[in-house]
Amino acid sequence: MSEEKKPDIQLTSNVVIVNEKNEVLLTRYDPDDERWWIPGASLETYEHPDAAAARALADVGQSDKLAATMKHVESFRGRRGWHVMFNYIVATNSNAITGDSCWFPLTALPPTAHGEWERSVIATCSK
Fold first, then answer.
1. Cα distances (Å, whole numbers) of residue 20 to 23, 52, 103
2. What is the pTM of this model?
3. What are the structural domains of the chain?
4. Considering only 25-29, 64-68, 82-86, 109-113, which range has the smallest mean pLDDT?
5. Which of 1, 16, 83, 85 makes the best surface tag, with the fewest CB within 10 Å?
6. Which residues are CB-neighbours of 104 under 8 A, at least 6 positions away?
């Protein structure tokens, strides 16, 4: 009996952060890349998705004490193995940001790193 290699599994908490102007906060991990991402953090070993969501909030200048509500979980095959995404919605009245992040109107999103995936997550979470 041959042993089949099991795929790598990536666990990620993503945060769709929406302000009172109905704008969403997106970030770039490379300032030379014109594509934007939903803020997120990979889970550490045995870390709860809520804790990773709090780290993702802090990474983009939002309070890690904001109420992040998990809206849905999705699972799919990606380029680097299997992905399990814990997607959260966060409402804020803070326009603070850090790093290469920016607020965008929900109706005018910029090019994103994964094409339509970010738009789909934003739409699902902000309903």
1. 7, 24, 11
2. 0.91
3. 9-125 (3.90.79.10)
4. 64-68
5. 1
6. 23, 24, 25, 26, 36, 110
